[in-house]
């Protein structure tokens, strides 16, 4: 990856960290999930409204490193308006990307692609995937 692209990706991650999208809580969310990463202390509180199999709204709160909080911001943006199956498919693609595996690159991941460099740092992969694992846990319990 070129250093210009890495620089751009770092800027996108820091923008989501410093100016998180969808931070907060949905008062009457249909899904509420709390997860943490005990090895580094990242924790996330995810609330979502799912109606007729579609994510209407998604918000997060929590604390952690720039990667986990930026990933939560990006994830909540990406899944809004998506069918549950599509959101879960995106999560699988993201997981494969983090693990350095082949993934379906026909799906536009938008800002999420900025996190692909995290795969070079195995200790940080759990930081990036924490919000996605929380979403999967909530949605798989709601199918």
Task: Describe this entry's structure for a reader.
This protein starts with a helix and ends with a helix. Strand 2 and strand 3 (54-63) form a beta hairpin. The chain has helices at residues 3-18, 66-79, 84-98, 122-140; strands spanning 31-37, 42-51, 54-63. The protein is α+β, with helices and mostly antiparallel strands. It contains four helices and three strands, in the order αβββααα. A three-stranded antiparallel sheet has the order 1-2-3, with helices on one face. The radius of gyration is 14 Å and the shape is globular. The longest helix has 19 residues, at 122-140.
Can you describe this structure in just a few lines?
The chain is α+β, with helices and mostly antiparallel strands. It has helices spanning 3-18, 66-79, 84-98, 122-140; strands at 31-37, 42-51, 54-63. It has 4 helices and 3 strands.
What are the SSEs and their pairings?
Elements: H1 3-18, E1 31-37, E2 42-51, E3 54-63, H2 66-79, H3 84-98, H4 122-140
Antiparallel strand pairs: 1-2, 2-3
Beta strand count: 3
Mean pLDDT: 92
**Largest beta-sheet characterization:** 3 strands, antiparallel
SSE order, one letter for each helix or strand: HEEEHHH
- Kindly report how far apart the N and C termini lie: 38 Å
- Briefly note the structural class of the backbone: alpha+beta
Separate helix tally: 4
Strand content: 15-25%
Fraction of helical residues: 40-55%
Task: Write down the Rg.
Answer: 14 Å
Low-confidence stretches: none
Strand order of the main beta sheet, please?
1-2-3
Shape annotation = globular
């Amino acid at each position: 990856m070129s250093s210009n692209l890495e620089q751009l990706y770092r800027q996108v991650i820091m923008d989501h960290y410093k100016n998180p999208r969808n931070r907060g809580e949905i008062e009457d969310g249909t899904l509420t999930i709390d997860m943490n990463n005990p090895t580094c202390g990242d924790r996330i509180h995810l609330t979502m409204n799912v109606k007729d199999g579609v994510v209407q709204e998604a918000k997060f709160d929590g604390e952690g490193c720039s990667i986990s909080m930026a990933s939560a911001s990006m994830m909540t943006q990406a899944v809004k308006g998506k069918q549950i199956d599509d959101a879960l498919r995106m999560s699988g693609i993201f997981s494969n990307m983090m693990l350095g595996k082949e993934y379906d690159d026909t799906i536009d991941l938008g800002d999420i692609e900025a996190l692909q460099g995290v795969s070079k740092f195995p200790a940080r992969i759990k930081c990036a995937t924490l919000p996605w694992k929380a979403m999967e846990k909530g949605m798989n319990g709601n199918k």
